[in-house]
Amino acid sequence: MSRLPGFVEWGGPGYGADMRRASGLAGRYRIGSVPYLNALPLTRDLGHPVVLLPPAALAVELHAGHLDAALVSVTEPLLHPGYRIVDGAGIVSHGPVASVFLAHRGPLEGIQTVHVDPATRTSIELLRILLAERGCRPGFRPLDRYADASSLDAVLLIGNPALEFRRSGATHELWDLGGAWAQFTGLPFVYATWVVRDGPEAVPLARSLRAAAETGIAAIPTLVDSRPEFDRALREAYLGGHIRYLIGPVEKSGVLRFAELLAKHGGQRVFPPHFV
Asked: Using CB atoms within 10 A as the burial measure, which of 15, 137, 241, 273 is most buried?
């Protein structure tokens, strides 16, 4: 398997040692990730313990200084200074993503209110952008319970709850946001990235996170075969299929385009992404 973008840049003395130490990474740093199937290739070889929280909660813990690194929504480093995005690995789609969608009844243009999964920030902003570019500006309200999703006319879901909803037999139309973004921009979308604090530990920590990601991505066939979530056909279509893990030049272009549209429609300051 080819190396992740950025590995050549960080190669040389110490690289092999970082690979060998990757399995103990979480023992030396406070690392957080999301409790979703799509993150497993990036977290498989980090060691334990890894803090598992929804994306919005991870952002809070990272901002509070309780974590040294976290797999957070890409909006976190775009809306807050002092962070560096780990070059090379993240959660990406090149078209339909399967686990981030607006489930709706009736045409998009008629939606007045969307109930949104409060676990996400990036997907909410992505939905806001995609709807605004179509001239739609519905109100957003938090989704109180996943069990209520099937009774609502418009609901944004992400991650495992989205996959469960997709399999539930609900009669909603599903507007896949990864597919909609690709159709609108012609670019991949980066949902989440490893983020580290700017400082002396940023480079060695980023180096080790990339090393763990490389071995975890190589192990996707094993994860597909062995994990208990959902069924094998879904895991095979999802891990390394709908979900990609490499962040290279074209994915960075997607991040930059998202940052531009976030500034246009978000009404807040957006910071340029800095990769390490």
From this structure: 273
